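During the reporting period the student researcher (J.K.) took over the structure-prediction task from the postdoctoral fellow and processed the backlog of single-chain submissions. One of the processed entries is reproduced below for the supervisory committee.
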Amino acid sequence: MTMDVPVTSQAILMAQDSNEVAKLTSDYLDTALGAQDLFGSLGSDVERPFENAIARLANTCHNRKALVEKLRADLAKANEHDSATRYSMFYCMVTALRYDRNVSEGIKAVEEYGDEFSSFPSFTHLQLLAKLQEDLSTYTDDEVDQLIADGFKSSQRVPFNEGYPHLFADLVATACEQARGDRLAQLRQMWLQRAVDAANAAIALERNYAKFYCTLGRLQAQQGLYVEAQRNINHAIDLESPERTDYAVRIGGYQAALINVRATEVEENTQAVHDDIRQSVESFSEELDAAREDLANARTSNLEFLGFFAALISFTIGSIGLVQGASASDAAGIIVVLAGALLLAFAGFTFIVLRNRNEVMRKALPMAALGAVVLILGFIWLHVGA
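J.K. obtained the following structure tokens:
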């Protein structure tokens, strides 16, 4: 790379040797290259070259801690640079903190300079990138929903920069991986298909960026497409450039995603087997309860019939014995009395046999009332006949 100034995004991205890019940040740290020269001509902040150029500056820098300190010191000089240059410096500082995994400092920087830079179109995108490094389980569901919604809006506003739809897809994948139960079902229903579409859109714009395939694979795992998920994550591993200074970290992330996909598949299959067993047990329990109820009803019916026939036989034998030698009127009265006694006896037998209070009220009490009425009528008949 020639050292002509000012430096452009295109020049940074076209440099074949990463050491050439590293020399730019070294010269900036040694004050051989001014902030205006390095950050003043990087182009529109929502274009992919701007984002990639700053990422390459931060990624190749041999002393990112010193770079952050230098950028912070220069940003403290409020009137020294124009707003676009200051925003490029701020963007590089937050990106360097992200590469150093200094999550808290990155978020603190975004909050500190939010009032000054929030009007820049890419500010929300940068803010989401910083927050994505945090454990989303520390956020409330409403906060996570807001992050995802902000990511979706950014992806709709800047569809031509593949980093924006990918960030939205990454947010959804991360939120789903950390959710369980009803919350997971809610996230999948609301955002999953949109996130898959966003990941595919990012790949369509840049087919050689490894991380896009890993994110797509993580989303496919949430859809239950485990074969496709593992294929895409393995493709990300094959596609990643060994020349990246964070190559080992990237590959470790892809391997972790692959393990997570396999674990999710095992968990889902185990849950499916558990659900099948539970449903079978519940079905068997229902059938067993129904069989017990049928058996109890059959026993009750048999006992009722047995009691009825026993009472009927007693009634018949008793009637024959009592009416012998009696007048027709007295014989009829005696039969009526015995019929009432039969009904009362059968009602009592039913009361003993039935254990269900509602069944007793429905069967035994009406029968007992009828038997009492018939018995009283029989006694009245005999009394009148006498």
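The committee noted the following: The mean pLDDT is 84.
J.K. will present the remaining backlog at the next meeting.
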